Predict the structure of Adenosylhomocysteinase.
Amino acid sequence: MNNLADTVVVDPGFGGGDKQAQAGPAPQDASVVVPPPATKQSSALKKTSRYRSRSLSASSTDSFSSASYTGSSEDGDDVPPREKVQKNSKGSSDFCVRNIAAQHAFGRREIEIAEQEMPGIIALKKRAAEDKPLKDAKIVGCTHINAQTAVLIETLVELGASVRWAACNIYSTQNEVAAALAESGIPIFAWRGETEEDFWWCIDRCVNAENWQPNMILDDGGDATHLMLKKYPTMFKLVKGIVEESVTGVHRLYQLSKAGKLTVPAMNVNDSVTKTKFDNLYSCKESILDSLKRSTDVMFGGKQVVVCGYGDVGKGCAQALKGQGCIVYITEIDPICALQASMDGFRVVKLNEVIRNVDIVVTATGNKNVVVREHMDKMKSGCIVCNMGHSNTEIDVNGLRTPDLTWEKVRSQVDHIIWPEGKYIILLAEGRLVNLSCSSIPSFAVSITSATQALALIELFNAPPGRYKTDVYLLPKKMDEYVASLHLPTFDAHLTELSDEQAKYMGLNKAGPFKPNYYRY
């Protein structure tokens, strides 16, 4: 196959909208390739007729900066990465990052720091490195690119895989980490602040490479799967398996399966116990506070907050904010989740009932148009609006791009949206995933998810023909338990072992699995 470096790729199914504007599959007649735009003006500026930027003082950026989230990842280099000619120390140019020369050393230190808090994936790397269970695997990855993901990527390579990687979010990439991966010889195409066009071009460069054909997909949001299915359907049929870790991506896979369009087996990692309980709940419980504090310096005590959605992400956010002294309201469509929220001491309301009084709005539903212009018109001045769901469709940001409103950029990923009468709201990360756009996430929680993803890839790649049909599967319970066991030594935790009599009484194997698939943890 020829490299399509000069071809501009846009979302094959979502038209000219945002990269995750719809959760479902695209129409069959959707356009795949369009000519490049005539100007280089940013999409944010093009979408609004009134936008002004406030100059940043040193104290403003210092109070927000942390490792890559401002300074190094936004180095002021105005030359688009696609227009640069860069090579790593080995002479390879099979990558596209912001600035490999200036950033790779710092990125390597970031990765080394992350490794110290990722015991599970490091243990898996050491145990399986000799066996090379992913030998001959050619993996296209489309995930957030940060120090923790880099540990996963390098683990997959150590286990024998050949990989090519792109970002699943235009704002979450740590530029220095991408540079470090490029320097180590990994074909990576990602930088912080990509345009929508850049986004699809990067994925295309990973999928369509000369003398390299992918046979596995590791996805976060379904974008790599979506592009391959729409643009390279023949290549897609040769894939041995897909591993998907997000609610949005899993929803897309089930839609494809229901429509009879999923021609390869897929593993739903998002609903594995180790991913759902530890990444969605415990990680978000910490990172929501980090995101809001870094981006706005907000004092939580006494603030009124509404969290839209009380799944595992919403539970983590609500519990964390309540623990800081916030008055927390919950919106829910599911009576079971609503009852859980009520029993946990939260008041369940409709958004319109509290929207005029709340100080912070957090979306965590995975749905679309949860917070729309009508809601934002009613918000008090200074209300903070952010999204903790994977997709950027929960907040109707396009409804704010009208001539009567002024956008004022005050910090990286922080915009004031100003109404004609002077009222303003604070929008974080333009409605995208706030914890990966405005802060860091706990490396330990990512270690659990990364180990789950690696095991899912190993399972699908090495499965004998016929074990998995063209459907969506959950990670086997035994693997979930193995991932958990890899992390227990960190806490000096000692498991009790069943006696033969106890195992027989319970009808269990002494080595597990210890719970049936229907068990709710």
Notes: Residues 1-49, 53-72 have pLDDT under 50 and may be disordered. The first strand starts at residue 51 and ends at 53. The radius of gyration is 23 Å.
